Model the fold of this input.
Amino acid sequence: MSTNSPELRRNKRVLGSPFKSPVKNLANIDAASPSNDVPHNNSNVTSIRNDIDHPSVKNKEIKPILEIFCPICKESMISLNQLNQHIDDEHQKTDEQNLSPEPPVVRRELQIDLLNGDKGFSLSIDEGRKNGNENIRAGLKLSRDANPLKVSPSPSPGAGARGSLRSNERLSRNHWQTPASGSKCSIEGCNKTLSVKQGIVNCRRCGKLFCNVHTNFKVRLRNGPDSNSIPIFESLKYGIWSRVCRNCYNDKLDSIKIVEPKVEDLTGTFKRIRMKKNEDKELMRNKIKKRFIKLVELLVDEDVKKKQRKSQISKWNLFGGSDTNEPTVLEQAIEIVGHDNWMEDSKTHNCTICYIHFNMITRKHHCRLCGSIVCDDLFGERKLCSIMVPINQLLDKLKNLNYGANARSQFLFLLLNECSIRFRCCINCKNHLLYEWKQSQQAKLDLNSTDKLVPLFETNKLLIILKDQIVRYMNRFEYLFQKNEATNGDEIEQVREKLLVYLKDYEGCSNQIKQSFYGRVNNALKLRPEFVDNERLINNVYRGSVFFLQDNLVKFKLLSDKLSELTQMELEDSKNHFAQIEGVQISKNSPTPIGTPEPRLTKKQIRELREQLMVMNEQRFLVENLIDDTIKQRKFDELGSLKENKTELIKRINELEKELGEFGF
Amino acid sequence: MTSLNQISTKYFERLFITKNNKSDERKPRVLLVDKHTTSILSLSYTQSQLLEHDIILIELITNHQNLKQMKNLDCIVYIKPTADSINHLVKELSQPHYSKYQVYFNNIITKQNLEKIAELDDLEVIVRVMELFQDYQVINDNLYQLENDRDDIIDESNQLVSLLLALKKCPIIFYETKLNIELRKLGSEILYQINLNSNNNLFDDVNSNLDTPPVLLILDRDNDPITPLIYPWTYQSMIHEFIGIENNTIALAADANGAAAPAAVTLSDKFYQLSIYLNYGDINDKFQTYVEQYKKETKQTSVINNNNLQDLKKLLTKFPEFKKLSNNILKHLNILTKLDEQINHQNLWEIGELQQIIIGNLENYPLIKKKILPIINNLRIYTIDKVKLLILLMVRFPNQQNDFNQWINQLNDPTYTQPPITKSQHLLLESFKLKKLFPHYNFEASLSDQSNSNEEGGIGGGSNFFNKAKINTLFGGNHSNKSENNDNIYMQYTPRLKSVLANILHHQSVQSSSQFTKLVPDKVNNQYGNYDGAIKDIIIYFKGGITYEESRIVYELQQKYPSVNLIIGGDKIINSNDWLNILYDKVNDLPQSGNNNQVLDLL
Ligand SMILES: [Zn+2]
Ligand SMILES: [Zn+2]
Ligand SMILES: [Zn+2]
Ligand SMILES: [Zn+2]
Ligand SMILES: [Zn+2]
Done:
């Protein structure tokens, strides 16, 4: 960790310094201990949340922190401390390696780079990129929508110093195979004996010997991590174009093939922004709530006083002078909102919310909670910018706030009586006030909304669980089958049984959907009328389950049949055992008891044919539904072939029923 | 080899396959899309694929106010980050209908928009936000198409940038210079986008294993106005020419036996995939084999009817496959019947051969003239085919003005031509005759090889940017204009694209020809320096329309050079009718000069 010269170490830190002028802060940083050197920065990090009300503080102190990046891999750091640790952990080794051959020269190179804040000396470019860097992106993305025709790109983190460091280097030849008389080309099937005429060429990568033809390929290489390793592919410009064999060239081509197309996960960035915004909103909501409480107190108090005055006025008519009180209330209201927030009439010409221009008809109003100047939009012609709200409507929804003494004493009276106390409130403040209330309403609504479909979703949940099981056991079944052509003893049989049970259960769920949501009309399945407004959804769920069942039944049957063929060739008694299990299955699953079996069909065959029949019937239903759909939607997609399908299916069903005779119920 | 389908598959996994192993926590899902992603999704994925992954409803996000509240469902949002779609998304978020939301964008979303969404996600229903880069439609494995509803160059370049990101490639940009301001604007816009987003680290992990910088080649349809007019003779091209492919579906008129209405048929089956590049002869052979195979298997069915239970079971397990197979056979039978009809109605065996003879200069002018005359005078030949032939003659033998005038007259004469040419067609012919429409277009220069051409074809003056000898060696030393299918008279012509690409691949550079302007993103500069070597990765963008024939050319080149990566696309995929309509618009927009008074007199 500390093998580097102190000078170098210091320079690294300077490079990572968030301050505009590195020299100024040099001593400051140097003086600190390496493990915990910049405590003031750390304290800033923790104070971000507390200082949120003071934008000035936020801008000055926090911004630089967000700008700390590792100069090598560009990973973002919260603090210089972390950066130092990071450089030690992540980059020390590679640095050393790189520096060791020619220390003095390299140091000078590095110093140049270090002073030039733009340039990196990326060694492990790939490593750095893997870590991704949301902070950088988040910051810079702001400029994405900037004027697109002015191109002023700053140099992207490239391989500046690296190239000059490495370009003169020779590729290692330690691993080269030495030619002997009679050496042959290492390409399989080439068989050429190497000669001056055929060529005796070492592949620059694998080092083996090849003929001319099979080394007619060029790729860019650089030396591996140590002197014993073979050169590695290096596509950057300091990679040396080198002659390689066909095998190595193919390796290279493989490495280019796209494995994963690009994906940018913005979830972290998004959640961070959202958290910040929600915190701001939460603060705002609390602020508005506090003001509301004060305002209610003021208005209720005023109301009480007014009533008292009224009764006084009727008695002392001559002294009637309520005029002096009016401005006081307004002043008090402004006090609650805060003079800074109370927008000035003279400077405002448009509604803060809908931007309509004020005139004689559209008048200015101050929202008593935020102080914004808004228009009155009682009838929702614009954005419902503001209305005079009767306070009892709000009180009713905000019963649990910590109201003042006046409000509390009048609370029930206010709620139960026609309310004359109103105040101007803008739509934003109303939303802030009622945020929690709305959420609770929403939650109540959620509970009630999907009643009718609850059974569908419950069943679908089961379907999903069963589906996972079926897929898992099916894979296992196939795997066991391929692994061992002969019977694989107990396990494959167990898997087979489990699979059968799950398939049956799945079928059961699927049928349940059919029975709960569909009815028979003219011998065709029809969605029950009470569900028609969710027709697409229900059809899709059912259709999906039938598709899945079909696919897997077919697959299961194929494997199962093969398995029983194999078992038949095995011991006779194991076959008997097998048949017993089949018998159990039938009696468990067939709704009607089996009558006298005809000799020409075994129980197993009956079961299988019945399964086929079931599949066919499902299919028929499905196709009929599809036909209905297409006709209804006038899409006529594949209508012809659908009808044809139906005919074929019916034919097949008839055949099967004939085959089964009395068992074809 | 880069595979666009493979990329689509990977994105499908990203979008719809949940990595959550606990199946009891998984909910069925609703997919909210916009009109942009709808067409992208429908081209690459089927509805049963979606059903398989518990997507039980697909809704348009514009429809959000009509959705039903269903908190038992989760939601996947997949939209293009346009202002419109994002507005709908935030409205949905303010009153969410579903439980949790995973939000995917098919291109780069701006910071402002991301903030806007975060701002309005009060209820914190979003659990994931991701950018995929899929702002283009995948038509074939090597062919993409952009969406160009609007004439919006920024959107166009954004779409191309999304393709580059999906491919993880940051290219040198070359655009054709010839006076087309649109191409220059597009080129600079892409350069800007790349540089800007390189600063945002978006291009950091691209080109990571490429020894040579990729190239984005922006070509101008106007520099080859001929190719779309030549009748194609390979399956996909022919379907587009005679039936018309839209979003990988075709509208087939009802067959004689009377299915009620025309049905839209999707082209995505395996037989189609394997046949798109086959020529007309081969596709018919292949179809025969296909039918034979089906017959063979269905014959086993009749055996089964004789109560062989074991076989019956086998058949039944195969039944769904049979069903698919027979549907498919029917579909392609319908298509091939339709193609055959068109070929016969339009006398295309004759017309097509004549087109090839003219453009390939396979016979001298007097001989060609002898063949043309009975066609021009034949009332049964379609007017449109006469127009196309005349245009070809005009670019190939520009000196035969007298003949052209006479033939134009005959095309105007109802006793020879029914119906006579329209005013637009007339204007078009006059413009081609006088070289007014594409004054810079030079057929000679655009031909891949004219070693066989005689003076009559000479226009002269064009800059030959490619080396004939080299192309000859490159394409196996065929003499004359013949392509690989040199035994097939109907496929003699090779589009200009082929010589452009051959030139680049062989010359190992693009900028040596004056025809292209080069733009190098900083990222490429940093990675490769002032690179001037071999080119192994070409992404072609054809502005003004691309033909399926050209995508086939790219496919063939790709087969020939497996170590090179070729992808092609355009703003639209055109057939001859589309192109003629574009040309009519162009001539009608031309300033009317003295010569056109003559035209009007003739009318
Ligand atoms: Zn680092
Ligand atoms: Zn090798
Ligand atoms: Zn060899
Ligand atoms: Zn307003
Ligand atoms: Zn307010």
Remarks:
- Confidence is low (pLDDT under 50) at residues 302-306, 448-485, 596-603 of chain B.
- The pocket of zinc ion (ligand 5) is lined by residues A 367, 369-370, 372, 426, 428-429 (CB under 6 Å).
- The longest strand of chain B covers residues 126-132.
- DSSP finds 23 helices and 15 strands in chain B.
